[in-house]
Records
---
Amino acid sequence: MNRSAGIHWLRILLGGFLAEVSVIALVIPVSLLFGKQTIPSTALFGSLLGCFLFALWVARRVDSRFILHGILVGLVATLIYVGLTRGRPEPVAYLVAHGLQIIGVAAGGFVAARQQKPASDS
């Protein structure tokens, strides 16, 4: 299967959207079950894991620029969150969560790159 070497914007947008939805889908039930004090730690964990998984999903479908695709997923997820909060100031834990998103998406891209079959030497 020949996959384009360009940037896959539609998949990136979908991955970023789903990554942000996954964080919200984790944070809300946990906070309802265990209280609002769990939101910062759940957001940290969800940001790292959700973004990693969706960046991995996006980056597995490309032939090159794996980490770039992953980072763009994280950028989309972060921009969605900023849009939802209308850019209001955030607690430090949420800023750390955004940093973990970037680490997660870069790691997802890196893992996808490592999982690619090595090109045969000519």
---
Amino acid sequence: MFVHPSAEVEAGAVVGAGTRIWHLCHLRAGAVVGRDAQLGRNVYVDDGAVIGDRVKVQNNVSVYAGVTLEDEVFVGPAAVFTNDLRPRAVNDGWTLVPTTVRHGATVGGGAVVRCGVVIGRWAMVGAGSVVTRDVADHQLVVGNPARPIGWVCRCGTVVGHDAEAPPAELTCADCAAG
């Protein structure tokens, strides 16, 4: 594990072997980060947030309580996750609303993910999109609000352009060839 000297990892945070934590990161007690993850500059991981193995979180991302990033997720720079549907400066009775980004999914830079949604396995959220609804496995969504425009292979190649129905095969020719 590597922790940059300017990063703060509180006692009680769990960090897996091989993980790299860069400049000005802050991991709260109770945060969980898996093995071989990479946390870019100024990443904040809250108590109750879970980051899986081989996840890459780019600069300036806050992963708040209730957010789970499963294994091999990519989060682009300055993406935003929320965890409260009715935020107020003073609210003693707020309710944490969980969000899950499934295995291998990508959340593009500057995207906003509203709490309570699930982003499916190998799905891709375009940069700057605002996700307000669940995203299916392998689905490609873009815009504000994010809308489906196609389907992607595990490698990220677009394999279908029908926004509603996935193609019979969700693997591109290059990946199928091995």
---
Amino acid sequence: MAPEIKILHTSDWHLGKKYLKKSFLAEQKYFLCWLQDIIIQKSIDVLVVAGDIFDTPAPPIEAQKIYYHFLKSVTAATNCHILIIAGNHDGGHFLEAPLPFLEQHHIKIWGHLSQNPKDHLYQYKKNGHEIAFFAMPFFRTYELLNYSKIENPGDREFIEYSLENFITAGTQGVTSKKIFIGHHLFGNYELSGSEQLVSLSGLDSISITLLSDHFDFSLLGHIHKKQTLKTAPLIEYAGAPLPFRFGETGSKQISLYTFTAAEVLKEHNKVPLFRHLLKWEFSLEHWEEELAHAMEKTPASAAPLPAFLDLTIRVDKPVYGLADRARCLLKEGAFELLAFQYKLNTLQSQPEKPASIDYQHMQAEELFTLFYKNKFPEIEHCDKEILEDFTFFYRDKMQQEGNILQ
């Protein structure tokens, strides 16, 4: 049997991420368990994680626990090598701190740019077959410029010129197939909506020509929508394995590449749905019936975790208590209301703020009343119950902070 190397490409786990104060940790646990099963079932040789392992540089303890549990479980059950680079959400030095222990288990992490470009090279060998990985974590302009002393790059972007200089130095002398691992903005990408965009001194995107000129494959992270920028040589964003906003639709998947001496085979692995993120909008007249019908079409058994729901009701004027009513109607354990808003059927022009009003010396209740009238100009008076609720919660908050004397 011809020697082959199997590489699994993923990125943007964002372990510990929250959205509207709700944690995604439960579905992230499901994902890592599923990923471990794929690695075992498919006999993966190399797992590439192209950045944004965590959502913050100092992730919560529970997020760290599932991360290290995953690394321990995979390396204990397989001979898989795990290559990880830091993304813009990660703390690079934090990721690298346990490297003396992790490297004993074929885990390599690049958290920041090294003084020596050759430190970013990782050569994997199996049965006489070899692939060289060049891993570049998320970097900032000033880090890259430290490596380039060239003063006159001509008409090319100085950043791209410096980056090419760094890559050339790091891959010099490599004769085997070369794979780039990166976490930045490359080429003409398509956003999913939950990314945090970054640029390098005004350079919004790095040309993919830089990658195609130096590498046989480029496995990227940072953009949450899986997409291929170029097919030959392949340049691809893995995409986030989970949806992180209500606007993200469509199934998620990760790619498996099988390298042989003669060809490269590509296989997509669909990530199971662990939680629905639903965005529903109904009219006031029949919203309860429409909500019940929508829930029937979304069976609870379709995902192991309760669905997160963003609900909008179209109204002619505000109606008190609809959010509470919606929570009562939702099936317990199957749906959770995360966001609720009204949408006015007829939008009217908003009146300009009167210049003669001294807002700085107005009471909170007066400011809220003005805000309400500005928000709903067709309503003559602010709803009494809404104003009472605002006053109660506002004064309670102020008392807790010691701003109102008893």
